[in-house]
Amino acid sequence: VPGGTGMGLPAAVRNRVAAVHRGSELPERLRLYDGWAARYEQDVAALEYRAPYLAAASLAFAFPAPRAEARLLDVACGTGLVARELHRRGFRCLDGVDGSAGMLERARSTGLYQELRLCVLGREPLPAPAEHYDAVTVVGALGEGQVPSTVLPELLRVTKPGGFLCLTTRSSPSNLRYKAELEAALGQLEQRGAWQKLLAQEVEYWERATSEEESTQGTGYISGVVYIYQKCPVPNLEEG
After folding, report:
1. Strand 133-138 to 115-118 pairing
2. Name one GO molecular function term (predicted).
3. CA distance 30 to 111
4. Does residue 111 lie within any of the structural domains?
5. For the residues 7-25, what does the mean pLDDT come to?
6. Which one, of 45, 16, 33, lies nearest residue 105 by Cα?
7. Within a domain: residue 1?
8. pLDDT digits (tens, 9 = 90+) for 38-80
9. Containing domain of residue 90, as a range?
10. Beta strand extents in 45-189 (DSSP E only)
11. How big is the CA angle at 147 (ends 39 and 7), to the nearest 5 degrees?
């Protein structure tokens, strides 16, 4: 069991993480992300941030082979952490969108994406045609003061019937209200027959907590959850 609390994190890291999660206004938040881009990967390494790894592993588990030709959209792609994990699992056709130009510049330098576009989710539609992607990932951006849960239909719109959606959120105290809203929205879309839930995996050691209040039962870590949904109608295997 990883020991120590998030209080062992450098204050600068704690402050940068807290700043982007502090429901600031959108222009200010995007400016913070632009400014954070250069240090982002060091900071999330210090946080032991496992969401990109966990999300990619879950999606790969659900996804039918072959993967190399499948088209994926990495929403709120940041510097490309999720792309790196997907690439390691055989996914090669990746597009990304993010609201921060600074983050996109870093993502571009990885060489892992075919196309990268600036897009502020919740404010504007995704720059993609309907039913275009075999899978869509939103890792780390669904949270209080970040991307609203009202974007779910837009994520569904660009996903092919039978395609997969991989979403994550934090289960820390400051995000519980958001998480409840998100799960209500996920459930409503399932009741309407828009998609079906394949996985909702609660993970105890998601990342290091940046404060004692956020820490799960004094572990020094916060927990999180990975969801995998499949868009309906699901292709009938017998027909093939």
Report:
1. unpaired
2. S-adenosylmethionine-dependent methyltransferase activity
3. 23
4. yes
5. 79
6. 33
7. no
8. 988 999 888 888 999 999 999 999 998 889 999 999 999 999 9
9. 11-231
10. 71-75, 93-98, 115-118, 133-138, 159-170
11. 45
